[in-house]
Design brief:
Strand order of the largest sheet: 6-13-8-11
Distance between the termini: 164 Å
Shape: elongated
CATH architecture of the domain at 247-327: Sandwich
Largest sheet: 4 strands, antiparallel
Low-confidence stretches: none
Structural class: mainly beta
Radius of gyration: 61 Å
CATH class of the domain at 247-327: Mainly Beta
Helix content: under 10%
Number of helices: 1
Mean pLDDT: 79
């Protein structure tokens, strides 16, 4: 058979011509054609061509030991798609590192956290902590949430001391102030001597019992004031209270009735019809008239014990008549 080094061999069958890709290789002392084959995978009736984006699926049925060499760049090891981790064992060496510490990171740059060990217990473990000079106590700086050191004069360290005896030396003058937003409360020891205080300016009372008592006293005083007013008015009726003001004058009374202007009386008001009048004058209320008024003849006088003269209305039977008055 003549040697054919053409990578494609034509096979002709029943008039159909097909070209098959081969690779010529010297095998067993003779040059032979080895057919080149592309791999596909998939279920029956489906075929997916193997490529860099569709690699051939491989399942490791049992433990696998592999030596990997010749790779550059990042080498990624992944577990199963379901998330089963890939166990890694052996000794890891870091060579060529020029800075410390050396971190372990995944391909995205996230640092790998290594956990493990066992919890310590006081029955089986003992841990010693030493300071920078090998001494058995450690320096510590206390700071607030802003990083400012606590314990100095501007930011004292507040502590609660219980069951201790403290000796304090105070200046002869001690000032006590509040925080500027609330009142300063001073009180004596419960069951001890009272604290003497002096109160000035405005004092607010915030005690329910005291406020209730003051309100009750205020109401009683109001009732007492009303009672005294009633007594005063009763005494005024009997003329036992002397007036402190008075009013006098003349009224020109016509046949049209009118009311008097207001004046508060203590004793009452006196009316006198002038002797020169020519007809009667009627004195009454808002319903005054020749049938309802008190008739006052010329030269006659009368006294009315009223608290205010605005209760009185005047009307003449005819013409214009003059009426003098004195109220007190």
């Amino acid at each position: 058979m003549a040697t054919d080094r053409d990578p494609n061999i034509v096979i002709e069958t029943a008039g159909i011509t097909a070209t098959i890709a081969t690779d010529t290789v010297v095998f067993s002392g003779a040059t032979a054609h080895f057919q080149l084959t592309k791999l596909v995978y998939g279920l029956t009736g489906a075929a997916t061509l193997v490529s860099s984006t569709n690699p051939l699926p491989v399942t490791v049925a049992s433990a696998l030991t592999a030596n990997i060499s010749g790779f550059t760049g990042t080498f990624v090891v992944e577990g199963k798609a379901s998330g089963t981790p890939v166990p890694v064992s052996g000794t890891v060496y870091v060579a060529g590192a020029t800075a410390t510490p050396v971190y372990i990171a995944n391909y995205s740059g996230t640092k790998v956290e290594v956990t493990g060990g066992r919890p310590l217990t006081k029955s089986t473990d003992s841990v010693s902590v030493y300071g920078p000079n090998g001494i058995t106590w450690i320096y510590a700086n206390l700071v607030n949430s802003s990083g400012t050191q606590l314990g100095n004069s501007a930011n004292p360290l507040y502590t609660i001391i219980s069951g201790a005896t403290v000796s304090v030396t105070l200046s002869t003058t001690v000032g006590v102030t509040n925080d500027g937003s609330s009142a300063l409360k001073i009180q004596g020891i419960s069951g001890g001597t009272s604290v003497a205080t002096t109160v000035g300016n405005t004092v607010g009372i915030n005690d329910t019992n005291i406020l209730t008592g003051i309100t009750a006293v205020y109401n009683r005083m109001g009732t007492m004031g009303n009672t005294l007013d009633a007594i005063y008015n009763a005494l005024a009726v009997f003329g036992l209270v002397r007036p402190t003001s008075a009013r006098a004058g003349l009224y020109n009374v016509t046949s049209s009735s009118f009311g008097l202007s207001g004046f508060t009386c203590t004793a009452g008001i006196n009316f006198k019809s002038l002797g020169t009048n020519t007809d009667l004058i009627y004195i009454g209320t808002s319903t005054i008239g020749t049938s309802y008024g008190y008739q006052l003849e010329p030269g006659e006088s009368v006294f009315f014990n009223v608290g205010n003269i605005n209760l009185i209305y005047l009307q003449a039977r005819s013409g214009t008549q003059t009426l003098s008055f004195f109220a007190s």
